[in-house]
Structure to design on (274 residues):
């Protein structure tokens, strides 16, 4: 996720181009508030956004996600397949709808109510997807979780040391790359659902498919830089405290996307060895 609030202050270029699916949430956030918030949102208030506050909100959201994921996972492993499938599909749909509402809603006070519900919905989705992959390839989920945490810590270290900076060029380039991936996934979805076709190679376990997944994981990882930058600048610009929830929401969207892409990558690598 880039820093849509600060794009308004750091650049005159404004983009608003929402796209559908999990990558879409990412691309939508790139344009989120570019043309919707005025300078009056950047005010010194008795309750202003802080990095610590955003971290606390992130922990709350991930606690909700983990509990919901564990519940869905438990249902599937206990043999309640229909219930687990309902939770997985329902979580994906509800999560997407809530993400769009959170991104475009004008009333910031709703962030603290909507984001935990979003986290629960995403948890149901993640729990079902993870259980599916685990049933197919034992140990895959643990590897994906470890790889996700290592990636987060690596990107945080690169951000804190200034090796990678969220410059205007960085944000715009990353937005274009994220939007392009969203377009590819949308084309694949339409082709597979309505025409029974698939984009050649990139969704298979071939070297091209693995290379594509590596590229997507890299782009998802770089989006973490923009999330960290958003939270840091939120404190510097003394945004209202409600934006801590939005910062946590953005970080969650990126991490969930990263985790899913790492799952796909590891599954492709495992399949290529068979």
């Amino acid at each position: 996720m880039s820093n849509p609030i600060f794009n308004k202050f750091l650049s005159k270029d404004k983009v608003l181009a929402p796209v559908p699916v999990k990558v879409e949430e990412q691309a939508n956030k790139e344009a989120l508030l570019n043309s919707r918030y005025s300078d009056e949102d950047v005010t010194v208030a008795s309750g202003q956004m802080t990095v610590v506050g955003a971290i606390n909100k992130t922990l709350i959201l991930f606690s909700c996600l983990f509990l919901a994921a564990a519940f869905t996972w438990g249902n599937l492993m206990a043999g309640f397949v229909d219930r687990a499938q309902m939770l997985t599909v329902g979580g994906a749909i509800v999560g997407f709808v809530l993400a769009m509402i959170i991104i475009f809603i004008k009333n910031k006070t709703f962030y603290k109510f909507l984001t935990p519900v979003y986290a629960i919905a995403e948890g149901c989705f993640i729990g079902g997807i993870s259980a599916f992959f685990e049933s197919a390839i034992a140990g895959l989920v643990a590897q994906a979780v470890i790889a996700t945490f290592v990636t987060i810590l690596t990107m945080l270290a690169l951000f804190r040391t200034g090796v990678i900076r969220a410059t205007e060029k960085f944000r715009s380039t990353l937005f274009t790359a994220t939007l392009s991936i969203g377009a590819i996934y949308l084309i694949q979805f339409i082709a597979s659902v309505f025409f029974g076709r698939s984009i050649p190679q990139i969704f298979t376990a071939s070297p091209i498919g693995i290379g594509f997944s590596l590229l997507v994981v890299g782009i998802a990882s770089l989006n973490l830089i923009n999330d960290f930058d958003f939270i840091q600048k939120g404190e510097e610009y003394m945004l209202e405290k409600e934006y801590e929830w939005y910062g946590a929401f953005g970080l969650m969207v990126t991490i969930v996307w990263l985790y899913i892409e790492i799952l796909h990558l590891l599954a492709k690598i495992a399949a290529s060895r068979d």
